[in-house]
Amino acid sequence: MKNERAALRTQILAKRAAFVAGLPPSVRNLAFRVLPNPVLAQIPPGARISVYHAMGSEAPTENLLEFLHEKGFKLCLPRLGKSVKEDMEFAEWAPGDILVPGQMRIPQPAPQAATVVPDIVLTPMVGFDKHLNRIGHGAGYYDRAFAKMPNARRIGIAWSCQMVDELPVEPWDVPLHMVITEQRIITGDAA
Length: 191
Hints:
It is built from 5 helices and 13 strands. Helices cover 25% and strands 23% of the residues.
């Protein structure tokens, strides 16, 4: 199954890159600026929300950070240790706070930023299916974090082209509660 997942990952990443490259700048700039109202209605006031810093052709989150901050939510960002064997944690962050390069040069909160547990985790991914299974880049950071935080609401952020009919699922994979794309909100067994 490992080779099947790797091949699928490569295929979806190429599809995503081509999709994003073909988007008009106006569409790219407007996508994912805010959380849709039906999603916002499910988030308690003052909840702590983890947001990732998008890299490459991932669904962008820069505007979401500002939007959520302005709405009064507490923010945090994923923080990786120096080794790929270390688990990911979440650290407090607010606009203007310093970010330092982490693994793979991904911006993350500085080591002195307090470690916190998010209520909501806005999650990047390579792909997802109608059952809300997700496939990431293969390091397992999010699945391990989800297993430690069973009460956190897991919301994927992705381009619509990242949806596939069915993903091969491993025992450690933790499904999402919903996925938000530029076209719609997917809450499970979507056609």
